[in-house]
Amino acid sequence: MTLSDSAPQGTDSIRESYLAMTRRKRMYSGIMLLIFVVLFISGFQIAQDRNAGGFIDGLPQLPDFPASVLSEAIEKAANLPGHIVDVLPALLETVNIAAVSTLTGTLAGMMLALLATRGLAPWPRLTGVFRRLSDILRAVPEIVVALVLIFVLGGGPVPAAIAIALHTAGAMGKLFSEVNENVDQKPLEGLASVGATWGQRMWLGVIPQVAPNYFSYALLRFEINIRASAILGFVGAGGIGYELKNAMTFGQGKLDEAAGIFIVLFATIVFFDQISSLIRNRLTYGG
User: Fold this and answer.
1) What share of the chain has pLDDT > 70, as a percent?
2) Of 269, 248, 267, 272, nearest to 258 (Cα)?
């Protein structure tokens, strides 16, 4: 067999392998799509049964509440500025919950990431333990932790801040550990050669390399935590979500207050989203 004969055979082998891999990917995608459709249909069926057969019949009434809020807001448009001013203290509480939980959760996530990254961890055998701890912290929803803490500590912003901080620590621990895996080891080797401790190597050799990515992820998490703190207000954790729950509970006659809260909440989320996006772009691309 000549070299020219073996080349087409090698090309055919690569082509067959590629086609086989493509078929497998299509098969897996089809299976996943089928599972999703089955779960989607079964979920609708469960919702229908739990609502005594009224779930499907109630779907056409879904726009009724937004329409009621909009009509009452238009009817009492003169009251909206006053409602917006009234909820500003609750909004400040929501932002404070998000800020405190983001700061504490990010610091905890940073430590988890350093302890869970191979090549950086002071106890290499325990990296798996810290990785699983990070998984557990981000696997439990904030609302579940908040409900438990509200039962133990009572309502207010403290349970919400703790719940969001724990979830943030788990999420940041995962993201930061992936960033840590790409650090240059040469500065660490240089620091180790002059007798630097583990903490000094991390602070002087790792943190300067990963700080922009850390800060970018922390800003993104701050946006998420603002929304999370507003949602936790519905279960008695304070903030603007609690005020929104009260306004929606009273229904007709208070829906203009709910509209004012919706406006404030939407404007706040958009504002912080734009600010953090601007800062992240400057950190990533400069300028």
Assistant:
1) 92
2) 248
DSSP 76: T
Tokens of 130: 């810290």
User: Could you give the CA distance from residue 267 to residue 67 in angstroms, rounded to a whole number?
Assistant: 20
What CA–CA distance (Å, rounded) separates 135 from 173?
A: 9
Kindly report the backbone phi and psi dihedral angles of residue 237, in degrees, each rounded to the nearest multiple of 5, phi listed first: -95, 10
Residues ≥6 apart with Cβ < 8 Å to 157: 93, 96, 97, 237, 238, 239
Q: Specify the pLDDT at position 34.
A: 92
For every residue of 167-200, which 3-state class applies, written as one string? HHHHHHHHHHHHHHCCCCCHHHHHHHHCCCCHHH
| Cβ–Cβ under 8 Å, residues 214 and 168 | no
pLDDT bucket at 2, cuts 50 / 70 / 90: low
The per-residue pLDDT for 169 is 94
DSSP assignment of 185-250 equals SHHHHHHHHTT--HHHHIIIIIHHHHHHHHHHHHHHHHHHHHHHHHHHGGGT--SHHHHHHHHHHH
pLDDT at 28 over 50: yes
Taking residues 30-42, report their average pLDDT: 89
Other CB atoms within 10 A of residue 248 CB: 17
Is residue 121 left, alpha or beta, with left meaning phi > 0 and alpha meaning psi from -120 to 50?
A: beta
A 10 A CB-CB count for 176 gives: 25
